[in-house]
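HUMAN: Quick job: go over this next protein and say how the chain folds.
***
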Amino acid sequence: MRFLFTVHPGFGHFLPMVSLARALQQAGHQVAFATARSFESVVTQARFEHIPAGLDWDESRIEETVPDIRSVPRDHHGKWIFDEIFVDRSPRQMVPDLLAAIEEWSPEAMVINNYELGGVIAAEIAGVPYANLNISFRWSRTPVKVMVGKQINQLRQAFMLPPDAGGQAYGRYLDLCLMPPTWTLPQALGNQGITRLMGHNVIHGGNGQRALAAKGLFLAGMMGLGKKSGQLTKAQGTEYYISPWSPPARPAEAPEWLRQMPAQPAVYVSLGTVFSKLYPEVFDLILLVLRDEPINLIVTLGAEGDPARFGPQPANVRLERYVPQEEILPFVDVCLNHAGYGSAMAPLAAGIPLVLLPLSADQPIIAQLCQSHGAAVPLPFEAMKINSGGLPVIDPARLTPEMIRAAVRQALTNPIYRSAAQAVAQQINALPGLDYAVQLLERLAIQRAPVIAPAAADDEQILGWLQRSAQFSEAASGD
């Protein structure tokens, strides 16, 4: 069978889809990725067929490939990319290119990244069954309507499709969620920590921050009402929660360079491929604060980061452009990162507590989810600001050495964070794996009809997980 994947040209979007695509290949199926021409080398190096489609841009080289963004303030990049690229320019070019690809390549089914909006429209026009693949958090129909309902209907109108007022197109056939059932937008925005932060900024922030915090409180209130009314656990009928991670097997021994470091706890630092370049000053602060702590500090700077610019480092500090996360996680005690989806979920699947510095994009949602589950140390309100989307992000100018030092020490020494991370790991590792996802996609391709889910995780079980997460979160915040 042939499965056509659609995705934006960014590592944070592409990499979470790779394990499923490989599982399909191993089951004897053909896989191709439809994405920007500029991303061809990434796709082919991962040993997949590449079909050029959509806007020709590259998230890791966005100023070069989308020059318009150069005039956008750094803190507004995430919202600008979402509004201008994800829900407008990209799908408008993606749909006609996908229709041509479907005509030529003849896929039996499509697998569509939840941030790529053109795939659903093209599949509907061509009559191809499709699976939505959720990363970051579960995009149920209510959040889809709140976040992008208006824009989706404008796109549908442009391609002569009727309005979809109920958001029924999303997850119509199969809704694959690479996360636990509790990983939802209402869970993130309905948690007490974010409400207190918004209230603090309404009272103490400047005029701009007050307005943004009020916007955030309104959104959190809407999601909180949905949570109380049962919207959180309301099934669409086609949702399947899948774990693409396996607990990392501890190798016989650590890498040589790690074995040469002192025998003490290890903290792994990363800001991802995009934000390492956008926020280089955060690395300076982290090194200043943590290099003299009794820890081994392992920092990945990104492909364009230069370890030499930081000068000589003590024996307990290792600076690299890139280290495979799966290679280092078995030897790590705490992860400090930007709350990217893969950067947060892989450590959680291994039961590793987090210190998170959300900077943009979906990171504030993921950070709130990690905190609401008790697995991440919350930073003081004074380090945060409300971004243009009404969500809490770190303000590097307000982030002090004392804040980072205290958070890392808490993650290392307070057992509640490791216990909470291990509880999330148990949820993740109890989910069906990629083999099951392959079976579901095969059923979809054969049946060409919705793949209705059994009641695998009922309301009582999900609420039990939520209550346990809330207990960890309350215990940590009361420390």
User: Anything to note?
Assistant: Confidence is low (pLDDT under 50) at residues 209-218, 225-233, 456-463. Residues 2-180+431-448 form a domain with the Rossmann fold fold (CATH 3.40.50.2000). The chain has two domains: 2-180+431-448, 256-428. The longest helix spans residues 77-105.
